[in-house]
Amino acid sequence: MRHCLTDRQRSMLALAEKVAPALAERAAGHDRDNTFPHDGYADLREAGLLRLTVPEELGGLGADQQELLLVLEHLAAADGATALSYAMHAAPLGSWALTWRRTGAPPLEQALRLAGMGHLVLAAIASEIGTPNLFTDAKTTATRVPGGYVLDGRKNFGTNSAAATMWASTARFEDPDLGPRLLILLVDPSGDGIAIEQTWDTLGMRATQSNDIVFAGHFVPDQAVVQSIPIGHLDAQVLETIICWTAPSFGAVYTGIAAGALAWSVEQVKQRDQQHDPRIQDAIADAETAIEVNRSVLARHAAEVMSGNLVTQFGVQEGFARCALVKNVCTNNAATVMTRLVDVVGGGAISRRLPFERMWRDVQAGLVMPINNRTGRELLGACALGVETAPVVPHPFLDAGAGRA
Q1: What is residue 53's DSSP assignment?
Q2: Dihedral of alpha carbons 158, 159, 163, 165, sign
Q3: Res. 182: pLDDT tops 60
Q4: Which residues face 196 on adjacent strands?
Q5: Residue 220's closest CA among 141, 163, 158?
Q6: What is the model's pLDDT at position 404?
Q7: Mean pLDDT value across residues 18-30
Q8: Burial of 85 (0-12, 13-18, 19+ CB in 10 A)
Q9: How far apart are CA 394 and CA 63, in angstroms?
Q10: What is the chain's mean pLDDT, rounded?
Q11: Is the distance from CB of 40 to CB of 79 less than 8 angstroms?
């Protein structure tokens, strides 16, 4: 369907359009060979998209969340794996930009300037088997040493680790005074005591190369610790600077893959002269409806984030729940769209010569990404029933209302 866009949004999408054809052309090869799209990243850099969410005064394009989500959807329609990897860079920078505008924090300004100059690419390396992906705990340990900490442990789903020059990671520290804490740290991946293990051989999203990361005595200086959270707590700053940006970014990527599959399917129908078949019209209508629902949910979420209302008007737990909702509505709908379109595409849906088969596989990865359906439903149900799922750490710089459970 056609969309109402501002001139600024059109200009952002024009940058994505520059690189989309090349990404689409290479997608099958990277998927087949299980390789990271370094060539696609070079295209993103040349188009200026690696600076998309950096403030203009710090060398970027100053995109807000809604503009980022539109770009991610457009890129994902061409190549979901490249778009997902890119989201791991652009979304954190967008949240940092929003925080920097409010606080003027020098470390954030330095990082954003480096990104604006093209010298910084981010990756979030926080996922671990057996721990919740809400930044409430970690199995990776941080041991206190003079001047900093030593990290030991294993992370999985290290998306974008193949390209990133800085990682945001987590570790558990047994503080002798405060008790167990979750540290959020910035890690230099070129340092000693870090190994990327080639474990990524999956059904979908193969080109993200989301391999395991092993920390074995890696030193992180004190100044690289950006946050310390009591274990088992939902944190308002994590909501503001991580969850409320990553969740919709994942949603936009999987919406984009489904939208790309729909556009491809429509062309197949026209080539076969089947556009008057009422059963095909019905399936296409279902797919269109689901994708438009996703776009509406994403737009509402972006408006809540950019206005600050997600953090200030809702409690922390409800904020997490709203992030879960936007991500899971989008990924569930995307999976449903792909299943519905099988009725349209027919046998071609399983042909590896055609892009639909890869798109179908890539979309399945969205169902297991954080915040997953099970955790999301727990949050949403508990909020509706007035049940506290975990203690809350309120935001230290905002009104007390942001800390409501």
Answers
A1: T
A2: negative
A3: yes
A4: 213
A5: 141
A6: 43
A7: 98
A8: buried
A9: 28
A10: 96
A11: yes
